[in-house]
Structures
1.
Amino acid sequence: MAGNALRMAALERLGPVLRGALRVVYPPQCLTCETPVAEEGTLCPACWPDVRLIHGLACDKCGIPLPGESATAVLCDDCLTIARPWGRGRAVLLYGGGARRLVLGLKYGDRHDVAAPAGRWMARVARPLLRPDSVIAPVPLHWWRLFRRRYNQSALLAAALAHETGAELVPDLLIRNRHTGNQDGRSRADRFANLHGAIVARPSRSPRIAGRHVLLVDDVMTSGATLAAASEACFKAGADAVDVIALARVGREETD
Ligand SMILES: [Zn+2]
Ligand SMILES: [Zn+2]
């Protein structure tokens, strides 16, 4: 895994001729396993069927797939009862199987090569949400976690999405003003209570979003508590509208 990140970093620094030569030595790997693949940013034939793309009808707030068809926007049962301060929400993948390996590789395994293709997939579903004044911003990590992990996976996704769409990126718009610990194993109510007020807009960045549309980016949406706290921070800083996008949405059977 770490070898792959080194390989990607080396590829970025080299010119096209050397890059071609390096590919012969280190052929690109599948994004979720170590099988060599023909093209950078793809999955091997064995891994593709294990990745569930969200398509068809989905909740307009949280992106969870819903049965049936509808010509108008619909909300899932959860989004009718849980506080969702943002406007619309989208997700590309249903969490689990290959999507889980993609997310974990990006988050802990230094598979930074997941970010560029993920940015392309996210751009497809994000485009209808974008306005000419849109600002893209990632959900922040607490500085201690950022220090330990060295990078924020949501920031990598936000940068890739901004690159694809041409929208303005403000990578350090939001900060966590206290350590919220691990959300895993907490009940939904606990997650919301734990995150409440834990995210604020950096005062020096607030003028960048005042009166504008913000698209918040996270790697995984589970309860939506983090995105709710981040949305509230944007509104407090004067954002006109906030929408959210996650690479993967955790399905109901996997939530608490
Ligand atoms: Zn594979
Ligand atoms: Zn929903």
Note: The beta strands are 52-53, 89-94, 135-138, 168-169, 174-176, 199-201, 213-221, 241-249.
2.
Amino acid sequence: MKYCTQCLYPETKPDLWFDADGVCSACQAYNNRGVIDWDQRRKEFIEITNRYRCNDDSTYDAVVGVSGGKDSTYQIIKLLEFGLNPLAVTAETCSMTEIGRRNLDNIRALGVDHVEVHVKPQIRRRINKLALAEVGDISWPEHVLIFTVPVRTAVQYGAKLIVWGENSQNEYGGPAAAADNNTLTRAWLEEFGGLLGLRVSDLIESTGIAARDMIQYRYPSDSALAASGVSGIFLGHYFPWDGYANALIAQAHGFETYPHTIEGSLANYENLDNGFHGIHDYFKYIKYGFGRATDIANNHIRRGRLDRATARSLLEIHDGKFPWTYLGRPIEAALAEIDTSLEEFIQITDRFVNKSLFETDNQGKPRRDAKGNLIPKFELGRVD
Ligand SMILES: [Zn+2]
């Protein structure tokens, strides 16, 4: 497995490509930030928000999806700084934690109205379990709802702008920034909110879950979207995005961090709001050979806060370990929420282990060490 020469992303990462010097597209996007005129971007942000804001106080200037994390706290702080009146909208995470709940309360305390959507828990748990087994993503309902709920809510309240956080594709401001066609469409939403090939319509057809139980999981129709005039932007396009800086800003405004490094991570300031996160991140590791600790290490490498060799040594300790606990809660307790035993869970993980990346026995079953960890066949950080 080949790695980026600058950071520690492997070639297995979806939607990543390398240039002739072996630098990954994520690093290239970061390197390009130096040539971006951020003053100009800031002006564009003001222009766009002025164009979409509510001029008669009949509704909100913008809708912001907030999980209660450092990034959503930062987003709200930023919009308030610009004098906007946002509506904070939460699609509750799959397994809300106590610290996540306190951080969500803190967002409201920043001085915003807040709407929170809860879906039928029985249906959600069925989908958690099914998506874990079918596509290896226990948090699939959350990944859908964090996109559909803010859009549905914006349409419902008549707010014209949705402000998302970081743009993973990096060089794109969002539909509202487009000169020619700034409408938000379902096609765009479905492409942007990656559903790992499992679509809501497939789920309704294949599982017998009724459409009436999936209302919050669906986007408004194109005609409803067009009639509403709602559009969207990424805040990360207008202000240089740095998760660590966002965490510092959020903390200065009451955001609470975890007292230890989070399991499978290198940080204590993110993914505090969903008790399933350890399982979710573990599946990324078994599929692609890198976990959450790699993402964080790379963010620090690009900003010169960690050198590549040091980061590599930290990943050896923290990345991709079996998620025995998350935020101190044993995995059995997380799995009990979806009526799954540890044995069943390990059987499911074995099906998703990328056998070209990890050692297997002569039956083709993934080998694990005494601590339950997979044994990589790849050399972490190798550059050829
Ligand atoms: Zn890179």
Note: The pocket of zinc ion is lined by residues 4, 6-7, 9, 23-24, 26-27 (CB under 6 Å).
